[in-house]
Amino acid sequence: MTAAPTGGQYRLHHAGPDGVVEAVITEVAAGIRELRVAGFDITEPFPVTEQPPGANGIVLVPWPNRVAGGVWELDGARQQLDVSEPKYGNASHGLLRFAPYRVVSQTETAVQQEATIHPQHGWPFTLETRVLHELVDDGIRVTHEITNRSGVRAPVAVGAHPYLRAGDTPAEDLVVTLDADTAFTVDEQKVPNGTVPVEGTPYDLRQGVRAGDADLDTAYKDITPDADGVRRTTMHGPEGDGVELWQDASFPYVQVFTSREYPRGGGKGLAVAVEPMTAPANALNSGEGLRWLEPDETWTGSWGIRRVWS
């Protein structure tokens, strides 16, 4: 039998009050390969025989998004990460994109996995990272835990890369809504070079924008939280049924990506990624959103995806 490119497949099942919640979590990159509620897909599934298209569902650690040229500076010394995005010449999506995680614990409704980031090119630190995927009544909750096992303080940022879906509604017809006041602008390498208020720009999602009319690979901040500090991005179809990605106060940034290169029926089509992030792209250089953990210090944060009924 040919091994799955994403390694082991962990099937989760939860009998919720509004229907069965099901997920498949992968060993490689601790990714979400399938997620549905009462037969309603809330992420884009992909076949077990394929790698995650467009980084679908994977965990991004110890940085999300891009590091310009793979270069950053640590205490005055130049650090050169491996360039993993040749098209733009950057280091992209961290160091565990193709790495297997180890199962710590597993039940019918949850699986926790862990992986160690060891010192390597441009990264002189050791981090232990754990990811808990647990099904809840309307979707999934994902909790990240990172501990610095270096003898010195270490930088940390985390993200994830799910592509959201609302059942069988074509991606073009989904309305994307995000109450964010500020968007990042980028240069030709897709690296942030400033910010702009969204008012009057194509980046304004506050009143909802049809995905088929949007052209976004855009990070946002100044996202309005609710009373509990939770920030939300929603996508819904013409009938009102939809999906929501929520992120706690540890994740104050989100990237919205309308990819028109997503595999569709032997061709390519539109899919929408909504990526919670603790820091924006190039945080190892800008410092924005970057956390520095002291030796043996642990950070934790959560986000999730839920079905929304009309």
Which key terms come to mind for this protein?
single chain, 310 residues, mainly beta, nine-stranded antiparallel β-sheet, 1 helix, 49% strand, globular
Task: Describe the 3D structure.
The chain is mostly beta strands and 310 residues long. It has one helix and 27 strands. The chain has a nine-stranded antiparallel β-sheet, with no helix packed on it. A six-stranded antiparallel β-sheet has the order 16-25-24-21-18-19, with no helix packed on it. The model has no long low-confidence stretch (mean pLDDT 97).
Give the overall shape: globular
Secondary structure: number of strands? 27
Q: How large is the count of helical segments?
A: 1
**Strand order, largest beta sheet:** 10-11-12-13-27-23-22-17-20
Note the main sheet: 9 strands, antiparallel
Question: Structural class, judged by helices and strands?
Answer: mainly beta
Quote the beta fraction.
over 45%
| Chain-averaged pLDDT | 97
String of helices and strands: EEEEEEEEEEEEEEEEEEEEEEEEEHEE
Low-confidence stretches: none
Q: What is the CA-based Rg, rounded? A: 18 Å
Task: Please bin the fraction of helical residues.
Answer: under 10%
Cα(first) to Cα(last) distance is 43 Å
